[in-house]
Amino acid sequence: MEFAMQPKTILVTGGAGFIGSNFVLQWLANETAGVVNLDKLTYAGNPANLAAVSSDPRYKFVQGDICDRELVAELLIRQRPRAIVHFAAETHVDRSIHGPDDFVRTNINGTFSLLEEARSYWTGLEGGEKDAFRFLHVSTDEVYGSLGTTDPAFSESTRYSPNSPYSASKAASDHLVRAYFHTYGLPVLTTNCSNNYGPFQFPEKLIPLVILHAITGKPIPVYGDGQNVRDWLFVADHCEAIRTVLARGRIGETYNIGGRNEVKNLDVVNTICAALDQLRPRDPVVPHSKLVKFVQDRPGHDRRYAMNTDKIESELGWRPQETFETGIRKTVEWYLDNDPWIQGVISGSYRQWMATQYSL
Ligand code: NAD
Ligand code: TYD
Predict the structure, then answer these.
(1) Average pLDDT over residues 323-339
(2) Which positions are catalytic?
(3) What's the predicted TM-score (pTM) here?
(4) What is the DSSP track for 44-90?
(5) Residue nearest (by alpha carbon) to ligand 2 atom 20
(6) Residue 206 Cα, ligand 2 centroid: separation in angstroms?
(7) CA dihedral in degrees (321, 325, 326, 327; nearest 10)?
């Protein structure tokens, strides 16, 4: 008698972080296969993000480090995933300036460990299982460096030119992933995405930081002249894009992902403040934009990022669903509705970071 094949599980790294947890929630809501989430739970990892699926029998959490090769090897053998989706990383540029060590360790050495163990596991697979296996590496637009005002957007063939310890460590990991395809034939996919925003983002990053400071009447720190430009993508759109590339991307290829939403930092801040003026007219300081405080610029601050997303749109048919206006509204409302989550992450280590970076 023949049994229908059970859909095989995927291994996600860094699934307790911002994008990883959004991805796990979206995956379990839309796919039948299960997820094993390997996460070290650094300051940026939060199991509360995944409370909604903690009792789903298809979800399994493993606390551990991607640099721990024995653990990774054992997980691969025991779980036999059909794919690895690799989010785990140190991700905050300002932290990489204060202390780059963890960025080199996790982003470069950790990706190397995963690649080595993935190669060993994949080499031992056979037939359809081997053909179906994928290693999807989640990366950033920051590897391409900084654009001038009139430069064309980054494409997949733009020369790498990383400027911060964070982007340099991500660029190094992208190169390793590429080399494992060319040298060993490991079936890899790489995605380079622009700035994400949405639920569960740790409030060290611009958008959640602005929301939190605005509603509590704290100064909103804007680096330099506030004219730096980022391309913003709502996190659910990024997760859709990753699922699309995993399902249909060509192995060995890289795909740029972005929102075609270039916005100056000061305009991001003012958009959030205007939304809060409507939603929270009784906050300590209104209009909220009175809280804007120009502070010293970030060293080596990249001026502009922009993504050309023609390849993923024409080849795989992916397109973002949210505009900046709809995505920001959803995000602001999510933070206003989730005070217990915010209180949970504003821990001792968060306060320590605020004191180091902003003297707050
Ligand atoms: P995040 O900082 O919110 O989360 C990172 C997660 O990785 C945390 O859960 C943390 O505990 C885990 N982690 C860190 N070191 C680990 C280790 N050694 N072993 C196991 N787990 C470890 O990050 P994010 O913003 O969700 O970003 C996820 C990925 O997406 C990263 O690779 C990042 O470079 C990439 N990316 C992020 C953005 C963005 O705007 N946030 C944009 C493009 C690409
Ligand atoms: P961030 O969210 O740290 O993302 P990234 O540096 O990866 O783009 O910052 C987004 C932009 O906002 C960036 O140009 C730096 C700027 N910024 C501020 O002006 N003030 C802040 O307090 C923070 C955290 C960022």
Answers:
(1) 97
(2) 141-142, 166
(3) 0.98
(4) T--GGGGGGGTT-TTEEEEE--TT-HHHHHHHHHHH--SEEEE----
(5) 222
(6) 5
(7) 70
